Amino acid sequence: MANAEVFKSKITVYVVACWIVAAFGGLMFGYDIGISGGVTAMDDFLIKFFPKVHERKLHAKEDNYCKYDDQLLQLFTSSLYLAALVASFGASKACRIFGRKPTILVASLFFIGGAGFSALAEHKWMLILGRILFGIGVGFGNEAVPVFLSEIAPVQHRGAVNILFQLFVTIGILIAGVVNYFTSTLHPIGWRVSLAIAGIPGLVLFFGSMILTETPASLIERGKDTKGKAALKKIRGVDNVDDEYEEVKRACEIAKEVKQPFKKLMKRSSVPPLVIGIMLQIFQQMTGINAIMFYAPVLFQTMGFKNDASLLSAVITGTVNVASTFVSIYLVDKIGRRKLLLQACVQMFICQVSIGAILLTHLNTTGTMDKGLAVVVVVLVCLYVMCFAWSWGPLGWLIPSETFPLETRTSGFAFAVSSNMLMTFLVAQAFLSMLCHMRAFIFFFFSAWILVMGLFVVFLVPETKGVPIDSIVERVWKQHPVWKKFMDDDGPKSQEMV
């Protein structure tokens, strides 16, 4: 069995450039997560598209928890994720047939189109169409980028390289917070500027993708062996890549025997990575993170912060998000995936329960919260965002991208992406209504999910640190006390999986 030490590599300027350019797909995703909450809190936007919500917002005695409860307003945020859910399956096929690089390019084009439609919207249907175009871009980008990064990264740095995707997501959220803070004073076009700027990372990814190399695994899988070996030499920065090339080629030969990868996913031997991939995405959303990141400005207004102060608080949480992701980049290949996930469950649980307790006892349905307590809540939100950023945020994307064998990698990851988008859609569509009806208990709701997540990691999530991506089956699934039972019943060919 090949070891990480066998595969020689150097980190070159070119391969770092490839990592950064591809990770701009994450920046586009993050910018959208961050921008929508700020835009929906802007009066000019509400007056134009959601005047009834604006009227409720102006009532001094309006219920703090319910003043933003509007299904169409939530659809503005959530429609993107429904589109991304559907698009992820088309993206999976595009990844397999055409390659990772063209799929990333297509994602950039949809983002540019979405930015244009959203910024120029005069009617709600234009606004929603822009969000749908964004969603298709998210579906293609979130499918292709993590797989691309995992496949071109050296095994000893795979965790850190893949987390660049999540790092750029957090940078996008932070940029969105800063943009919203300044554009909120540009009346009446501030919201248009915020949405239009989403096209900039799309343009960077479009032109930057011209320099990307296709991944060796994708080239060899599509019968381009010579180009695949040349690409492997280029991204490794060395000429002696024979051992790694042979391992990738063996994985590709097995992959070619699978004509229907989605059908292969229904086999028992595909259950472990499929369950892990889907459940990590579901749990990632049920931490409540996107509820907080989508609606941070709205949430802080609910607690009594004025509009500018709430937007500034969102910038603060965005900064914490970015800084904490660097912790994950440093630690993920040193201490492993499981320890980061479990530590975060403890910290997130404490923060969610504390926030819920403070809001339950000190935020009435009308009026504002004591300023000192409001600051405490912001600190708790930051502590919560901090541990999510070094654990469930990046690892929710990393682990599924490295645990599927090549023959089901793109199709399996499509299920993971679509699960993420479905849960994100449900949370985005329901959060403001849940906040209205559950009030402070919504934080206890998410806390209960965090307990379940911790137990799931303890018993079912294996450690994949330092394992070559095409050796996961033999060295992870077949060694796991629970999952090994699923790896020996698909006939002789399943025994030969790399």
Automatic annotation (TrEMBL):
Coiled coil: none annotated. GO terms for molecular function: monosaccharide transmembrane transporter activity; symporter activity. It is found in: Membrane. It comes from the Eukaryota. CDD domains: MFS_STP (cd17361). It is a multi-pass membrane protein. Keywords: Membrane, Sugar transport, Symport, Transmembrane, Transmembrane helix, Transport. One of its GO terms (cellular component) is membrane. The chain crosses the membrane at residues 12-31, 72-91, 103-121, 127-149, 161-183, 189-212, 274-298, 310-333, 372-392, 413-435, 441-461. Residues 18-465 form the Major facilitator superfamily (MFS) profile domain. Belongs to the major facilitator superfamily. Sugar transporter (TC 2.A.1.1) family. Belongs to the major facilitator superfamily. Phosphate:H(+) symporter (TC 2.A.1.9) family. This is Major facilitator superfamily (MFS) profile domain-containing protein. It comes from Camellia sinensis.
